[in-house]
Amino acid sequence: MLPRWGLVVLVALLAAWLSSPTFSMKGDPPRSPAAPATMMPTTDTHGRKPNRLAREKSPYLLQHAYNPVDWHPWGGEAFDEARRDGKPIFLSIGYSTCHWCHVMERESFEDDSTAALLNASFVPIKVDREERPDVDRVYMTAAQAMGLGGGWPLNVFLTPDLKPFYGGTYFPPDARQGRPSFRQVLASVQRAWSEHRAEIERTGDNVLAALAGMSAPDSAAEEQAKLMEQAADYFARAADHRHGGFGGAPKFPSVVNLDFLLRWWSRAPEKRVAALELVTAQLDAMRAGGIHDHLGGGFHRYATDREWLVPHFEKMLYDQAQLAWAYLEGFQSTGRREYAGAARDIFAYVTRDLSSPEGGFCSAEDADSEGEEGKFYVWTQAGIEAVLPREEVALFAQVYGVTPHGNFERGATILSLVRTPDAAAKQFGLPEPEVERRLADARAKLLEARARRVRPHRDDKVLAAWNGLMISAFARGARVLDDPALRARAVRAAEFVWRTLWDDERHEMKRRWRDGEAAGAGQLGDYACVALGFLDLYQATFDAAWLERAVRVTEAAVARFWDEEHGGFFESPADDPSIKVRMKDGFDGAEIAGNSIAAWDLVQLGALLDRRDWQEKARRTLEYYARRLAGGSAAMPQMLVAMDAAMTPPRHVVIAGEPDAPDTRALVRAYDRRFLPRDVLLLAGGPGRKRLADLAPFTAALIPQGGRATAYVCVNYACRLPVTEPEKFVAQLDERPTIARERR
Fold first, then answer.
1. What is the pLDDT of residues 137-147, one digit of tens each?
2. Taken in order 377, 383, 388, 392, is the CA torsion positive or negative?
3. I want to staple 311 with a disulfide (CB 3.0 to 4.6 A). Which of 30, 253, 300, 621 is the partner?
């Protein structure tokens, strides 16, 4: 943690006031109007008047549009009011499927007396972190650096010039367990602002200066190969060898850890079996646990326990994309068909429940329905008996852990796989295929019954970054599972993103689309993830247009976000004066850092297209993060994935042949079945041959041999002997990559 600068005095002062036994509210100030006179005059079904948020598109902001709090969206109107009236800003950040955001809204933001305090002494601003990750990034980092915790809802107090000086996450409506009430916090901050404004202003300056310094590289250099070894050692120590995954409760999927470990394993499979075992242990535990939706497919946000049984029931699009990657790569690495099945479940869920009619992918589904978390997903034994025939109940209950007493609240059961189909086959004296057929039939009936329940809220905004990740996942699934329907779904989403979020004349990406409107400046992650999705989609379709589009998006990202002084990319664009510090993410969390994906894009596209300028930027980005991650490389596993690819001599795999010819498809399938994380596949043939040659000129000379589709494996710009037989092609593919300065 960073030192707390001048905040020590202020925080101590606030703490003293809040803990004082004589502290009390001396009446509520008069309530200010909930909205200006120019606001639309309509009311909701409860007769409540709207505030300014009623004009917004964000589902999260619209959830707060009828609060008595005089909310502003992030923007100049709110900033001007704060400066004009000399009031501090109360900034509250969350997202529409955030459980504790809903709780705080019910307890505090819908309460008239609390709203009166906010409206009288502060300028309240609501931000959807998914629409404005740049705002969230600055103030989340500030709160954590000040020792105030992190998470959502994030509530931060700012000066009128947007300098943070105090905050926290969830504040209860009444003082409890040593935590002050939200109203006490508001009163104390207002008092501090009145009596110590000069100190607060200085504190805000110090916080912003410290945040700006975080993006400068330190001087210590570390070999990138050593960083990977450090991370592998860390994950081996942090692993939960009993339950799978890393650490204790709560347990997050943390797919970036698995991405790195699979690549670490793949360099020396015989020596690094333990790394693969860490991956399969977590994949197995998640697939069996309650974090997996065994009826509808997809995965919940995280598990609240070590055993992966009790989830936080929220579902996020970015989790589905990354978990699909992990199960597909697990299938490629082990050949275990249950991993392919888990990936198919994810794709079925996203296609059915997280797809917009226009073609994009929606952001999330809430954990709550009818005021209860998980109510939509859990079952009682009586509820199952009401749906399934009697002869199916016992088998389903034995396999999915359904009991009269349940394993969750009020006797309900979270479905989890407690017996494998082969174990159940032995127990019930049935052939395993028959058991699997009966279980599939039972799941379908229960899913149909569940669909008649009140569904959780769905956040239907389409975010560029998350759609890029999901396009990538569907494209990879199309290849690995040889499924044209997945390819078609990826194409539809990519066309939607290109049509609605990309401005080809201005070469810029919008962050969000909803209800016919594209808005918000694209962040680094939006550009990087969309470029990744387009690159993967090229390999699923061999339509050179997607490779061209990946290039255009990457060029725009370099122009907008590249830091020429230090290397690496800023996460937000330069033209927003409300963002006081342009930052660079320092870890891969639930959402992968934009720099990690951007570095991967530069490594892959730079080598593939012989773009020396991009290769140089990739080198500088990786060196920047090698210095920054010295001693803590496990913080950014996806950056290590990019480093791993960059350390390998570039290998291009080109198949020359007609795209739909059987001999071409045989070579493509041989490639797609392998786990080849550092390679990119190109198809030189058919109508797109000239367009590909314009992008990658070396492919023009690679042609079919003897009238048959031919594979060329080119290492460090030198091609091996061309082959036409899949077996010989596989032998060339399986030659182990070398790594510069690899430690033995």
1. 888 888 888 88
2. positive
3. 300
**Residue in the block written with tokens 């019930």:** 428
The amino acid at 575: D
Angle of helix 594-608 relative to helix 544-561, nearest 10 degrees, comes to 130
**Parallel/antiparallel/unpaired status of strands 89-94 and 123-128:** parallel
Give yes or no for a contact between 339 and 262, defined as CB atoms under 8 angstroms apart: no
Burial letters for 342-362: b for 16+ Cβ neighbours within 10 Å, e otherwise?
bbbbbbebbeebbbbeebbbb
Query: Is the CB of residue 417 less than 8 Å from the CB of residue 294?
Result: yes
DSSP string over 1-24: ----TTHHHHHHHHHHHHH-TT--
Residue 565 falls within a domain, yes or no? no
Q: Are 447 and 379 in contact (CB under 8 A)?
A: no
The CA-atom distances, in angstroms, between 733 and each of 653, 654, 675, 676 are 9, 12, 10, 8
> Beta-carbon neighbour count of residue 281 at 10 Å?
17
Task: Identify the domain containing residue 283 by its residue range.
Answer: 242-459
In this structure, are residues 402 and 415 in contact, taking their beta carbons and an 8 Å threshold? yes
**Cis omega (within 30 of 0) on the bond before 153?**
yes
- The tokens for 452 are 């008649």
Instruction: Give the bridge partners for 508, in sequence order.
Output: 503
Eight-state DSSP code of residue 459: E
Cα–Cα distance for residue pair 596/642, rounded to 1 Å:
7
Q: Is the pLDDT of residue 31 over 60?
A: no
- Cα 297 to Cα 81, 256, 412, 594, 620, distances in angstroms: 47, 21, 20, 28, 41
CB pairs under 8 A, 24+ apart, for 53-59? Answer: 53/126, 57/461, 57/512, 57/514, 57/515, 57/517, 57/519, 58/96, 58/128, 58/130, 58/131, 58/461, 58/512, 58/514, 59/96, 59/128, 59/457, 59/459, 59/460, 59/461, 59/514
Same domain? For 183 and 294 the reply is: no
Residues 193 and 259 reside in one and the same domain = no
What's phi and psi for 398, nearest 5 deg?
-65, -40
Phi then psi for residue 217, to 5 deg, are -70, 150
Number of domains observed in the structure of the chain:
3
Q: Which helix (H) or strand (E) holds 527?
A: helix 524-541
Report pLDDT for 22.
33
For residues 185 and 17, give the distance between their C-alpha atoms in angstroms, rounded to a whole number. 9
What are the CA-CA distances from residue 154 to residues 86, 96, 100, 183, 220 (Å)?
23, 13, 10, 16, 33
Report the distance separating Cα 669 and Cα 482, nearest Å: 8
370: left (phi over 0), alpha (psi -120 to 50) or beta: left
Domain end residue (candidates: 459, 493, 516): 459
pLDDT in tens, 519-562: 999 999 999 999 999 999 999 999 999 999 999 999 999 999 99
Residue 15 above 50 pLDDT? no
Same domain for 348 and 271, yes or no, is yes
Same domain? 18 vs 96: yes
| Residue 158 parent element (H or E) | strand 154-158
pTM: predicted TM-score of the whole model, two decimal places: 0.87
CATH number of the domain where residue 148 is located: 3.40.30.10
